[in-house]
Amino acid sequence: MPETSDRKDDHIRIIQEEDVETSGTGFADIDLVHDALPEIHRDEIDTTTTLFGHELAAPIVIESMTGGHPNTTKLNRALAEAAQETGIAMGVGSQRAGLELTDEDLLESYTVVREVAPDAVLYGNVGAAQLLEYDVDDVERAVEMIDADAMAIHLNFLQEAVQPEGDIDARGCLAEIERVASELSVPVVVKETGNGISRDVARRLADAGVDAIDVAGKGGTTWSGIESYRAAAVGASRQEGIGQLFRAWGVPTAVSTLEAAESHDCVVASGGVRSGLDIAKAIALGARAGGLAKPFLAPAGQGTEAVVDLIETLSLELRTAMFVTGSASIEELQETDYVVLGRTKEYLEERRER
């Protein structure tokens, strides 16, 4: 099995077996202000929103996780079937393996998502570093591979820096992102992978013409930590230590959401999002939707029904938060009152003074 494909399988195994969670999203410091007289019916609350020009039944995204190894086909099938059934969005993991190889079993790990989810909002995924090697036609092949509604370009340079075989040349990526955003046939979303997007980077991405920003902030799965485990397995002790040192590096998700929303009107909040209440808080901070990855992994292994069950739980938690803030729609939730406390308040105040 080729190196890129094997790496995908390693990632899933490590996430399932090891401690790869960090804290510090900032959501614990965000309080939505309670409305004791909401004057709405909970079951009539409208949770629909639009993302990449398509309507979602709820502002929930199954974040890019996997693909590129035959072992991941079952997972992506269950995730996509659940997205189809519940009307939410889903992304696939990096399609680098699918673009570089022609193994049919490997390709099925990606193509299965559109086969089982003909109406779901699906987005593809390529790395910013790979844009230095790919032309727009290559990215279009990734779009065609899953008949994608949008294409994510992921930023994962800390992860690459920890990988013994990582791609550590980040020069020229912004210009390539701008080129793809202007020429690709579908909307482009730029997403981090667990370390967040700052105000300055969000502004640069907005100026580059990207259609959405997925902040993927600090506080959830740590890819630095995951790569530390991989480095340890191959005896790369220096890289293992770097991975542990930077395990909790990044901009907290709540902060990143606020800062990105200052520059772009389509922000997805991910990175340690673990409940419908977290999604509600993210939307109040300016996000269009909230995304989760790792919480979907175990249910995906159990099958479509388990994934649907989690989505329905998240939706009810979100709807309850909307009910007790008097928010009859996602648009109203975006305007609801909130209070910022603790370290997140201090972080924001320090940032504003600079």
Automatic annotation (TrEMBL):
Its main location: cytoplasm. Its EC number is 5.3.3.2. It catalyses: isopentenyl diphosphate = dimethylallyl diphosphate. The keyword Thylakoid does not apply. Gene3D superfamilies: Aldolase class I. Residues 22-95, 168-336 form the FMN-dependent dehydrogenase domain. Keywords: Cytoplasm, Flavoprotein, FMN, Isomerase, Isoprene biosynthesis, Magnesium, Metal-binding, NADP. It comes from the Archaea. Mg(2+) binds at residue 160. SMART domains: IMPDH. The keyword Magnesium applies. SUPFAM superfamilies: FMN-linked oxidoreductases. It is an enzyme of class 5 (isomerase). Substrate binds at residues 7-8, 94-96, 159. Involved in the biosynthesis of isoprenoids. Catalyzes the 1,3-allylic rearrangement of the homoallylic substrate isopentenyl (IPP) to its allylic isomer, dimethylallyl diphosphate (DMAPP). This is Isopentenyl-diphosphate delta-isomerase. It comes from Halostagnicola larsenii XH-48.
